[in-house]
Structures are given as C-alpha cells and as structure tokens.
Amino acid sequence: MNKKKFYNFIAQKKTAWVLFMILAVSGIFYFTILSQQPPIKATIAPEQTAADTVHRGNGWWETSRLIYHGIPARCVFKPAPESEITPGALAEEIWREFDRIGAIFNPFDPDSEIYRLNHFSGSATDSLVVSDDVLTVLSVSRKLWQDTGGQFDPTMWQIKHLWQTAEKNQQIPSAKAIADARRQTGLDQVVWDETNKNRIAFKTHPVKFDFGGIVKGYAVDRVQQILTDHGAAAGLVQLGGEVSTFGKNDENPWRVGIQHPKQLDQIWGVISSNDRLQVSTSGNYRQPIVIDGTSFYHIFSPHTGRPVSEKVLGVTTASFDDSHSNAWLDGLATAITVVGAEKGLLLAKGLNCDAVILYEKDDGTIGEIITSGFSKYYQRYTTAD
User: Fold this and answer.
1) Which end of the chain offers a freer environment for a tag, N or C, measured as fewer CB atoms within 10 Å?
2) H/E element holding 366?
C-alpha cells in the first residue's frame, strides 16, 4: 500500500462507525428518516436526479458515496419548498465541498495546502499565508490543544511517519528516534501574525501537520452549512464516525448507533434526540500497526510519541444543543482516547461535553463510562460483551 493510500486508510481512525447500516439493510436513512413508513420495495425504482441522489418521499432526499478512499459519506435532507436549487444540484454542491476539503488537507498530494505547509523550508522568521479553511481548523485545534493540556496535537506527522516506517521495517523505533521525532512536533511552535490572522510562522523550527483527527468533523460542519445556507429545513450529514443533524426528523427522533468495539457487525448503543444532534466517534481498535507480531494502536500520545493504551476501545462525544462543532467533537474524541477512560471522563465533564467511553476490563470484557448528560439521550443496545 503506498503512502497516500495508507494515510487515507488510517484517516478512518474515527471508525467506530456511526452507521445505521448495521441496524437495517438501508442504513442510516431508513432507521432515521423512514422509520414511520414501510420500506421502499426493491422492485420500485425511486426517482433520481443524479446517479446517487434519490427521492425518498415525504420531501426527503438522500445522496451517498464512498469518499476519501473508502469512507462512507451520506446526506439526507429536506429542501425548502421554495428553494431555487434542485435536490440534485444541491447534492452535487455537497460532494464538491467534500472534495474541496479533502484536496486542501491531504498531506500526500503535492497540490494540497497541507503538503505545501509540511514542506516549508524557510527560516523561523518567515511567515506563510494559509486559507480560511486551514485557519479555522488550526484555531479549533489550538483551542483543543490548550483545553486538553496538549493531548490533542495536529503536528504529529513526524511521529506517525516514524511508526509507519517502523512497521514497514518491522522494527520498533528506538527511544532516541522517538525523542528526535517529538522534537519536531508541538503546536506551541506555530505563531499567528497578530496583524494578519491568515499568516502563520514557526518559533524555532517548522512542524508538519496531520489534521486526520479533526478534518472529517470539519468537513461535516461545512457540508451542513451548505444545506442550511440553501434553506434546507432538516437534514443529516455523516462522514464515517462523524454525524450531524438539524431540524426535525418528521415525527421521529434522530437516532445514531455506536458500533460494538469487538463484534463489528453489532450495535453497542443508540443515541436519540428530537432536535439537534452532533456525534463524533473515535475507535481505537481498527488498523493496528503490527511489528514483529505485536499490535500497536494507530493513535499516538503527543507526550510520549508512542501508541496509546489498548484499554480504550472507543470514544463517542456528542452535543445536543449546538454548543460544539463537529470539528471540536472530533478532536476531543481523539484526546479522550489518548488520556484513557477515567481521565477522559473528567476531561469531557470539564469541557461540558457529553461522552460515552468504552474500555477493556482486566478480565477482557467491555466496560462503559458515560457522562450524566447522556442519560436521557442514550440507551444500551446490547448486553453482550
């Protein structure tokens, strides 16, 4: 697997997928939107305005694709009756936005902005111009970096590259190699130009960015903004483990399933809300790095430069009142995974965020910790460990 494909593969790290496809053949759409209606028969061809834009009845439209090298993406929306844009044209605008975000943040694409930043060769006194998108994600990242004591850090590219190379060579990195890589990280090295916020510089040395732990959430934020800008009355946007809903799901609640961390064809729990719902899930049980027969998890601690503990199996962060963006929830789920279950619970509480944390007990069974705010939204779906 080449580096570009590998990056996009591990970029799915938030893949304790929030997929209703596990609950019903037709996935998110039927479980959330049409639970009050009989399923559309397979022999009935639904109306389509584009290859992947389907009219589901009662004013709802659905569009779905695999993007970013295989991550499932889906949008279900209810356009405003007076909207001047057709559902098909709106769907194409959605996919163009997903593509645009991916093109900006792909560190393997020589034409991407992140690639350019990561290959900066100027001095510490030189500054670089960044786009509004990169500035926004950097700003959210900096807030998370501050709020989590550096447990979320989007400058971990050198650490990830070190461990990817270690897997290729089948040799665990030495303590010196890890220390050398860590010296090339740190969001505290990034300086904002106070006179021009779109300019950044580095203090003593450049760092290389990896926004894989936050950019999918940002993409969901952007796509939802497009839907609301065009007057959509309600909708759901999903990209892998990132889900955001707005408006009313007719007479039914929005429902988001959390995947079982060991039995990947089952649902562990379900989150329900009649109004706004934003969810981010970080799974620490997929795409392990395997060196000499030992599996290491693909999420790394900024403080040690090593893979995090295998005890945390999955983290789901959620917002029910529009107080947090999906980008912020995305990054926080990663930080909670890094610090572990007990400290992660305290971190979520301290930041006024609801979370479900699944971890492995000493006897191999699965433990669950949830914040008190989840009680009226969350229901355990399975009793099997």
Assistant:
1) N
2) strand 366-370
Residue 374 identity: F
User: Please, what is the Cα angle at 165 between 128 and 306, to 5 degrees?
Assistant: 80
The C-alpha atoms of residue 67 and residue 88 are separated, in whole angstroms, by 18
3-state secondary structure of 365: coil
Q: Which positions ≥6 away from 156 have C-beta within 8 Å?
A: 185, 210, 300, 302
Give me the amino acid identity at 364.
Answer: G
Question: Helix 215-229 vs helix 132-147: angle between axes, to the nearest 10 degrees?
Answer: 130
Q: How far apart are CA 240 and CA 243, in angstroms?
A: 8
- In single-letter form, the type of residue at position 185 comes to T
Q: Cα separations (Å) of 127 from 112, 130, 191, 212? A: 18, 10, 9, 24
CB 18 within 8 A of CB 31: no
Instruction: Please count the CA atoms within 13 angstroms of the CA of 135 that sit on its side-chain side.
Output: 13
How far is the C-alpha of 299 from the C-alpha of 305, rounded, in Å? 10
CATH superfamily, region 113-202? ApbE-like superfamily (1.10.3980.10)
Output the six-digit token pair for 282.
């970080």
pLDDT tens, per residue, the chain with 385 residues:
444 443 443 343 333 333 333 232 223 333 333 333 332 222 223 344 555 789 999 999 999 999 998 899 999 999 988 888 999 999 999 999 999 999 999 999 999 999 999 998 876 668 899 999 999 999 999 999 999 999 999 999 999 999 999 999 999 999 999 999 999 999 999 998 878 889 999 998 889 999 999 999 999 999 999 999 999 999 999 999 999 999 999 999 999 999 898 888 889 999 999 989 999 998 766 678 899 988 888 889 999 999 987 789 999 999 998 899 999 999 999 999 999 999 999 999 999 999 999 999 999 899 999 999 988 899 998 655 5
Sorted by where each begins, the domain ranges of the chain are: 113-202
Residue 133: burial class (beta carbons within 10 Å; 0-12, 13-18, 19+): middle
